[in-house]
Write a structure and sequence with these properties.
The structure is a single chain. It is built from nine helices and no strands. α3 packs parallel to α5, α4 crosses α7 and α5 runs antiparallel to α6. The chain is an all-alpha fold. The protein has two domains: about 190 residues, Rhomboid-like fold (Up-down Bundle), CATH 1.20.1540.10; about 35 residues, no CATH class. The protein is elongated and about 90 Å long.
């Protein structure tokens, strides 16, 4: 079987994030052009008709600024997930999206909540906390990249004077990302296999003149231990 080339691998990494963003733009343009009123398919907390928004809200945006502000992080974070978290990427994105929507429906304000910003906060949180939980060099570097690029998002976790901002989506997205990172922390990617340290090997090959617990037992304890061992050998 032919191994994938670097170019084909990058195409596969870029494909789904690009499709995701393209879908957001197509939906928005159709909504604007045909006046579809898709906003009313967003999450409306504690109302039965608002349940549809758990599925549809992340694909609906109110204006161009809203769409553009979510497009670049979705693309970038989607690429990070596809490149470095292949085993869990789809599972993490689906669970973050659904759990964020459910929590907003239960606890959010009585208003239509739309947009992919909750998913953005969820992915930022997931990548950051995965580095904390796994403590693998790769995941730690990704956590640092997230801190540098998205530390300003912390302001969006709290109520704002700007009524149109769904801070609930941000907050519950961040919480969902943390929870999913914890649940999936033991899933190891192909490049996260533990490598034995050369110092560990050196430690195992050493010769010691005294038992390793020489200073942990009293003379009386050693005497009783020798009697016990002799009894077992008889």
């Amino acid at each position: 079987m032919q191994e994938p080339t670097p170019s084909s691998e990058w195409r596969s990494i870029l494909f789904w994030p690009l499709v995701w963003v393209l879908l957001l733009w197509v939906i928005f343009i159709l909504d604007q052009h045909f006046a579809l009123g898709l906003m009313y398919y967003g999450i409306y907390p504690q109302k039965v008709h608002g349940l549809w928004g758990i599925l549809f809200a992340p694909f609906i945006h109110g204006d161009w600024a809203h769409l553009i502000s979510n497009s670049s992080p979705i693309l970038f974070l989607g690429i990070l997930m596809a490149a470095f978290y292949r085993k869990v990427a789809l599972t993490a994105i689906v669970i973050i999206t659904l759990s964020t929507g459910i929590l907003v429906w239960i606890f959010g304000r009585e208003s239509y909540h739309i947009g992919a910003s909750g998913v953005v906060y969820g992915l930022v949180s997931f990548i950051f906390w995965t580095g904390i939980f796994k403590k693998h060099p790769k995941t730690i570097v990704l956590s640092l990249i997230i801190i540098i690029m998205y530390s300003g998002l912390s302001e969006g976790l709290f109520p704002s004077e700007v009524v149109r901002i769904s801070w609930e989506s941000h907050l519950f997205g961040a919480f969902s990302g943390l929870w999913v990172a914890f649940v999936l922390k033991n899933v190891k990617e192909a490049d996260e296999k533990e490598v034995s340290s050369p110092w560990e090997k050196e430690e195992s090959e050493r010769t010691y003149f005294l038992p390793r617990d020489a200073f942990e037992k009293t003379k009386l304890q050693r005497y009783y231990e020798s009697l016990y061992n002799e009894g077992n050998h008889e």
